Structure formats: C-alpha cells, structure tokens
Amino acid sequence: MTYRYNFFRGCEECGRSVDIDDHICPKCGFDFTLHPRTKPKCPYCEKELHITDFYVMELDKKGHKMVKGFLGEHKGANQMFHCPFCGKILGFTNASVG
Questions:
Q1: Which among 16, 18, 85, 87 is least surrounded, fewest beta carbons within 10 Å?
Q2: Which long-range contacts (CB under 8 A, 24 or more apart) does 83-89 make?
Q3: Can you give the pLDDT at residue 4?
Q4: What is the four-CA torsion angle of 49, 52, 55, 61, rounded to 10 degrees?
C-alpha cells in the first residue's frame, strides 16, 4: 500500500497552497510560526477577544467549563455578535434559537 503525503498546506489568510517548510506565505505574508491560539482583535477598539467573551461559561460538577447561554442578541434565527468592550457590532451568524 502506498501512502500519499501532502507537502503543501493552505494559507489561512489567502488560501494559496504553500510549501510545508515555508514559515511565511509568499503571497500575503501570513506568518505560520505564530501561536495557534492567538486571539483576534476588535477592529474598532483593538482589544483582544476570546470566545468566552460572547458566551456564559459555567462549571459543571466535575469542574469542566460548559456553555450555558449567548450574551449577544438574537435577530430571528441569527446571533448578533458585538464587542463586549466598545459595543460595536462585529457580525452575525446563523444559529438555532434555543
């Protein structure tokens, strides 16, 4: 049995196929050596955002974090995300209300 290995990966910014040994995308300059959990920033106030800023997190009996509710607003079947620091609207997502 022969295995095929993929020596290319897709750039997260521009989607271009990049050699696996490259650390910077030649098209857009995205740096692959950045920590994978870098936090995005609000485009308005430049504060770092985390997923826990948008949801109510509670601990269960075993001490694991669980999502209990959404902190933003519901517009029909969409969730409206807004920055918890400056209050500007960041975007919408389709979600089942419930």
A1: 87
A2: 83/42, 83/44, 83/45, 83/47, 83/49, 84/49, 84/53, 84/54, 85/42, 85/45, 85/47, 86/42, 86/44, 86/45, 86/47, 88/42, 88/44, 88/45
A3: 45
A4: 180
Query: Is 53 in a helix, a strand, or coil?
Result: helix
Cα–Cα distance between 36 and 14 in angstroms, integer?
17
Residues 11-26 have pLDDT tens digits of 666 667 777 667 777 7
Q: What is the pTM of this model?
A: 0.48
63-70 LR contacts (CB < 8 Å, sep 24+): 70/95
Domain ranges for the chain, please list them.
Answer: 1-37, 51-94
Which of these, 31, 38, 37, lies nearest to 14 by C-alpha position? 31
